[in-house]
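User: Show me a protein chain along with its predicted structure.
Assistant: Here is one chain, sequence first, then structure tokens.
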Amino acid sequence: MKPDTIDIVLEPQDLDVLQACFDAVRRERGLINDEVLAATIAAQMIELYQTGIRDPRELSERVML
């Protein structure tokens, strides 16, 4: 774990936000069939979420490819 992340338990509503954001990013960027890149995006989103970024728009914008 990176020092700037918080070890938090993700609740169902957190997972809903992350899933919706993840699905939107994959659709918008045309990454539907790229499972390796999808795993990278998911990990980045979770890490950002753990640092306190909860706004779906901000999460989507901050995900690096």
